[in-house]
# Entry
Amino acid sequence: MPLALKTFATLNDADAALKAAGARYLGGGTLVVRAANEGDVSLTTFVRSTDPALFSISVEGGRATIGASVTMSTIARHPDLAAIAPAARAVGGPAIRNMATVGGNLFAPAPYGDFAVALLALDAEVLEGDQATPIDAFLKARDAAAGRIVSAVRFDVPEPKKFRFVKVARVKPKGVSVLSIAVLLDEASDGTIRAARIALGCMANRPMRAAAAEQALVGRQRTAEGIAPALAVAGEGTAPITDAIASAWYRAEVLPVHLGRLLLS
Amino acid sequence: MELRKNYFADERKDDLHEIGQSRPRSDAPGHVTGKTAYFADRTFPGLLHLKMVRSPHHHARIKGIDTSEALKHPGVVRVLTAKDIPHNLYTILILIQVGPEDEYVLAEDKVRWKGEAVVAVVAETERAAQEAVDKVKVDYEVLPAVFDMEEALKPGAPLVNEFHPGNFYLYDSGDHRKVRFGDIEKGFAEADHVLEQTYASSPIEQAPTETTGCVVMPEGNDRFTCHTNTQAMFFTLDNTSIILQMPGHKLHMVGGTVGGGFGGKVDVIVEPIAILAARLTGRPVSFIYGRYEEMQISSPRAAEKIIIKDGVMKDGRIVARKVTGYTDAGAYSRHSPYGAQKGAAHYPGPYTVPNVWIDTYCVYTNRTPSSAMRGFGVTIADFALEVQMDKLARLIGMDPLEFRFVNAYRDGDMKAHRQPTTGAALIECMQEASRAANWPVAEKYLQMSSYKGG
Amino acid sequence: MGVAREEKRMAKVPIQFVLNGDEKAEFVESGSTLLKVLREKLGDTSPKGGCHQGTCGTCSVLVDGELRLSCLTLAETCEGASVTTTAGLAEGGVLHPLQRAFQEGFATQCGFCTPGMIMAAKALLDRVPNPTREEVVDAISGNICRCTGYEPIIRAILSAARSNSHHAA
# Structure
């Protein structure tokens, strides 16, 4: 079947069109046009919506709502989103960042999806119309979610010193991820860690939490000694991918090293 | 850029006008304006697209091929299998008598590597061709495969290619190329130290930004113009002539600017089948590798395994060098028998060693056929040799550059291949490298020369 | 084994956009990439198809001034837009400073990456007229060159920026 693009003014109409066999949401095109170019013949129809809400960013009272069609470069240069700009800049090169969207990044299979790793650490909500789903649950079920269009993500913009992000790549400044790590830390005034959220990319086929490491950080100081127990369990529950960039073994070996550096930085 | 004229000053007539001068590249204006025409920068009305059905197995017997569904697929114009190819069995270097023909344009009885071409689908659009590729049914009986060269050479290993019993290329010198010079065992016995090391490399993809491909236009008189990005125009012309059993004057090969080759475009893979498709359909045909094909299907640099055993004296002289080299051809010869032979011709490197023993093997495995890439047969050999030189220098506590001065060949030295050295310039290159890299060496090495007795 | 007719009934869609200052109107197959339309319909073969997966940058163009990969951009999404390619950079036969710098600085060898590389550089200089070396490296980080080793390209872009600011002054 020849390909076709169907454009809809509203999300609801686009949602309905996505129910058809072979329909995929276009997003920024960096995933689905690539799939079509590479011979994925199961894909027959690109669907997109031009609903302006998909392209809007609002930051009110420290809470950001970012439309699903907002691109990485738009986030990277938004004055109120500076704290998460490093994660947006970690995606692709400049051209990819001008195209790749927040919504698409939620569906990007490892080794892609670095921005979704940040969103996972930030405990974002994923909005599909009126329905809000915690990102943990959304990511776990995202394969089933295909067919519903993500309209936006919502999260509390972190204080810059509380949020840390690193993408480890072999080629600088732009390379595919060996792994990526995002950490949101709540520290008491004496430096004791009260709570931590740690999200990992490439340590499974989608972003995942390092739950054991998060727990092991609570009550500890951000010192080499303090974080050692967390690093020891950083790999718990992970199933790293093997690809041309790195083997699962390598990713597992270097995870505690990079997590340690990020926490101590 | 600086031209150093103090070396070999007595041999130089100082009448060079171009060397040492910066000159504009003649092709740059086309490149920077986007006007340079690469082979794919052409469109022809009615252009058909060829896509390949490839083996998903490393080694398998083909029990049957069913193209009926693919033929019925909308947009499909023609489906080609082995029986459509006039002379399906070929090998590139048959042109210089390096045989036997050992590779099928389209697989017949067996596939010998994952990705081997089995069926070609020609359709109105790339999309239709891709869809039809998915509808070709090939019935395979999977066979044991071998991926390691030493495993492949063992008795009882799976036979990769029936034209190469024992999984090695049979040279006129036997199962390997060999060089024998002096008395290697005597050399080792006399040496102060003996160091044996093993070096190995993986296949390396040339990864040109422009993928391999061609666009063929029938001229209407059974003559075909083939716009190709081959790096080897006459290999392509003559091999296509053999495969299609057509005289050369029917085949008009048009080359031009190549978007990066690095040796990856010297095989003859896309042109014969695309010209045949154009001949059988009477329409222009394009066969251009996707990026996946370029990375996984086109021949890489061969994997190599090299074992070097050296005898060295405390004063730095290498007195014996034994090299055993293995080149992984993958499933078919392509340029690898030549690459392995080049290795034999290259060892023991640019050094004068009185006792030398070299064996190089070209081995068949069920991996992607390897072929040419920048200095193939020599590049990995040099990596191994020079790492070995550093290790030897460290072993005897000598500066690595001075160690090379001690062993560098000079005019009049007899090489292991029984050719006297002439025109050597290694000493002078190292003197200049020492200066440019600010890596001082003892004065006596700066006084040396490549001239006989120098 | 006749030619199936179904493909010929493929619905085409009209599209209009500005290419290098000229209005273009075409009927294209729906879902076609901008790269395909530029190369096959409009005859602008300056953008190249190196990977068709967004990793090599040889197809880079500007869409409304923003650097985009034309291999992953559907042509229909460019309706009404202004598209710039390397073929449109020289004005009245006078090379753009980037083109001149690439030519003079040996920043092009096989040439296949050059048009995309120049567009990536232009996207940078349009936004940051006097970039640092680091900004240049980042700007071309989505563009692969297999010949030059990048150094001459980085030097050429910095040199074009200098000559630009010289002109402005």
